[in-house]
Amino acid sequence: MYYLGTDIGSSAVKLAAADEKGNILTLRRFSAGVSGEQLEAEARKILAESGITAPPKHICITGAGSDIAENCFKGIPHTCFEEFGCFGRGAVDLSGIDKAVIVSIGTGTAFVIADNKKYTHIGGSGVGGGTLSGLAELTVNITDRDTLNRLITEGNPAKVDLTMGDICKGTLGGLAADVTAANFGSRHISHSPADIAAGLSNMIFQTAGVMAAFACKGTDITNAVFVGSTAELPGGKEMLEAVGQLHSLTFTVPENGAYAGAIGAILWGIERNTTK
């Protein structure tokens, strides 16, 4: 027997299947914007490709588009779980860090405090993967994610950003010369599509990282865990870790973080069924 978790976001659907102990059997994703019937058909196809042909014991649903899945898999029990608690719990499970600011960088960015199995949503930002996609289309006319990822890898954000080294000699407030003073503030800004793409990515991750650092201030929390599909973009892990070091904090980007919501939903589903 297994549990099926679905995290239905605005840009992608993430699926996870796990046994009754929470051990992951398969993880897959596909584009959002599907009907309930299409969702079920795609889920069944993915499960079959993974060698899973039996129906799930329980469907665990989360995400902004969770209503799409409510009428899928007729006859199989299902439960909808609140999104913030799901990606928070999934992030804790994936990272092994149980007290942290959890940051989900998806189309936008959401922030949750995880502490002793309690998950408190503290706010969010409209700056996320959707911002990156929209600005990439507006600035360099790129809509394909693979092309954008390649350009980010090839580009140099220092050719579009203004750094501390550009505006002062030595250090200011202990800030090193390569610290960004202004995203896209360079006095000699590059018009290279690759440099612009790298600068956009840099801006998204620095914004999420600095907001996570501010969320830690005034608390005893020294860790932030970043999940969501956008956190997997090229250079994201390294940039977030650098922001963490700048603020004397530990920033972690766990493997399979894009599936934190679906995994968290499964873990809540298992707990609910075992405590009945």
Account of the 3D structure:
With 276 residues, the protein is α/β, with parallel strands linked by helices. The protein folds into two domains: 2-85 and 260-274, Nucleotidyltransferase, domain 5 (2-Layer Sandwich); 97-253, ATPase, nucleotide binding domain (Nucleotidyltransferase, domain 5, 2-Layer Sandwich), CATH 3.30.420. It has helices spanning 36-49, 83-95, 129-140, 145-154, 164-167, 193-216, 236-246, 260-274, and strands at 2-8, 12-19, 24-31, 58-62, 78-80, 99-105, 109-115, 118-125, 162-163, 180-182, 223-227, 250-252. Strands 3-2-1-4-5 form a five-stranded mixed sheet, sandwiched between helices. Strands 8-7-6-11-12 form a five-stranded mixed sheet, with helices on both faces. Strands 9-10 form a two-stranded antiparallel sheet. Strand 2 and strand 3 (24-31) form a beta hairpin. The chain starts with a strand and ends with a helix. The model has no long low-confidence stretch (mean pLDDT 92).
- Given helix and strand content, the structural type is alpha/beta
Strand content: 15-25%
Mean pLDDT: 92
Given the structure, what is the number of helices? 8
Number of strands: 12
Summary?
Helices cover 37% and strands 24% of the residues. The protein has helices spanning 36-49, 83-95, 129-140, 145-154, 164-167, 193-216, 236-246, 260-274, and strands at 2-8, 12-19, 24-31, 58-62, 78-80, 99-105, 109-115, 118-125, 162-163, 180-182, 223-227, 250-252.
